[in-house]
Amino acid sequence: MSENMRTWRVIDTGLRRAAENMAINHAILEAHQEGTTPHTLRFLQFLPSALLGYHQSAEQELDLDYCRQHGIEIQRRITGGGAIYFDQAQIGWELYVDKQTLGTADMGQIARRICEAAAAGIRQLGVDAQFRPRNDIEVQGRKISGTGGASDGDSILYQGTLLVEFDVERMLRVLRVAAEKLTGKAIASARERVVNLKDLLGVAPDFLSVKSALTRAFASAFNVSFDEAVDLNDIEVAKFHHALQTMDTPQWVHRVQRPRSEAPILTSLYKCQGGLMRVAVAVDILRNHIKQVWIIGDFFVNPRRMVVDLEAALKDTPAAQLYANVQRFFDAYPAEMLMLTRHDFITAIETALATAEFSVPVISA
Amino acid sequence: MGCVNGCEFPDDLYFSVENNVWARREDDGSITVGMTSYACSLSGQLVAYTPKKAGKDVAKNKSCATVESGKWVGPAKSPVAGLVVAINDVLASTPGLINDDPYGAGWLVKIRPFDWAADARDLVTGAAASVAFKAKMDAEGFGGC
User: Fold this and answer.
1) What is the pLDDT of residue A2?
2) Which is it for the CA torsion A188, A189, A192, A193, positive or negative?
3) Which of A141, A146, B69, B143 suits a disulfide with B43, CB 3.0-4.6 Å?
């Protein structure tokens, strides 16, 4: 590999509307796949936006009236995963590289490698950030960066958020979050699962420090140096304008339209020897799919964060694989539980699932 | 049946090694397209499937379906140019079938090819497919299915 190939580009595309940021995603990834764009680290910021995952529908994921009333732009990402709220108080980071450079084509390994590098960068800011399978970066069990990716041939785009400051209440209003169904204390429940740099450090670090820390960490992890670019290149700009014509339209944003009835949030109250468990499960009935699980209640586990780590491990689980995924999690996770077994968690979640009709059986017993 | 690092590559299929997809010529002349077991292993559990619409043309090496796994979204690229004549409706509710049965019930689309003879020249089959996928796996540092 030549010295030249070891230099990647870093670019900050500034504060933009979501449609522009998504169109830039498309433009750089396509240009990278065609070989006209170097490996790139991009930083970005958003005006208030609700960002859907590629396969999601706005009706199912968002409070559309609230978004409209508060000028929150709705957009569709080209990457996977769930809907997020993004505004000026967070920073986005993205890597555009190829599988060959990363030395693997295994998408799980690629995500891990990039997330571990990003976590190292966040640690330089003074918080104990760690990668948490499958796609989160967390601090003591609380998520500080969510990530997702898109691929095109040998090229990949992998992107993450970093919560510098974060308005949890607004997130809850924008997204359909099940925490409220569990306790009526939605904000407290969300705060146990999400954290931001300002809350951890007492003061929000300036964006320059954040970018610098992440850039150094990626440089170290991938053994590269970065050249700063001020603007996108001409090919990318042309592709950006072309993509914007498609993506800055209701047709793109609402390309997937599905009724809320296909994405209910199911709940259960489960009593066992070890205590009382309240579970909420966001499901996709059509795809027989668990989107997200929330578990709270009065029971003893050590470490306490085991519950949120289990929640993270169960994101996007086919319902039929719930049993196997819970088993896999506990096989690898050392935890103490008082009068409680892994089967109690399975039963509590299955009890919630049993309240809806899936097209294939989901109960393990 | 070819088997490389635990991944199967059936002898009766044509493979695009670059796109990691297979093609099978049916009796009616249509081409069934799907992901290889190797591609499924690299992706992990698939959770969503959006095919190109039936009645649309697809170019060779362009996306005929988009799939999602573990927050990754990516195209399955067609090994042939043609007209999409069928999509796999079952995958809308059970995209995991692509992982469970990549060469059977997990097929992605059926295409009426514009020029099968020309496109097939770029595809490999039988022992040649095993050799080509072995080289690809070695280059990509793959541990096995």
Assistant:
1) 43
2) negative
3) B69
**B19-115: CATH topology:** OB fold (Dihydrolipoamide Acetyltransferase, E2P) (2.40.50)
A312: domain range?
262-353
Judge whether A46 and A166 are in contact, CB under 8 Å.
Answer: no
Interchain contact, B47 vs A318, CB within 8 Å: yes
Report chain B residues touching chain A, CB-CB < 8 A. 18, 41-45, 47-48, 50, 66, 68-75, 77, 92-96, 139-142
Q: Which of A33, A55, A152 to mutate to test the interface with B (most CBs of B within 10 A)?
A: A55
Task: Compute the nearest-CA separation of A162 from chain B (Å).
Answer: 17
Domain with residue A142: its CATH number is 3.30.930.10
How many cross-chain Cβ pairs, A to B, lie less than 8 Å apart?
96
pLDDT of residue A3 exceeding 70, the answer is: no
**Is ipTM strictly over 0.90?**
yes
Cα distances (angstroms) measured from residue A228 to each of A29, A84, A118, A232, B116 = 18, 29, 19, 11, 47
Bridging pattern class, strands B72-77 and A142-152: parallel
Contact A129, A202 (CB under 8 A): no
Please indicate whether, in this complex, the C-beta atoms of A151 and B70 are within 8 angstroms of each other.
Answer: no
CB contact under 8 A, B96 and A320: yes
Residue A361 lies in a domain: no
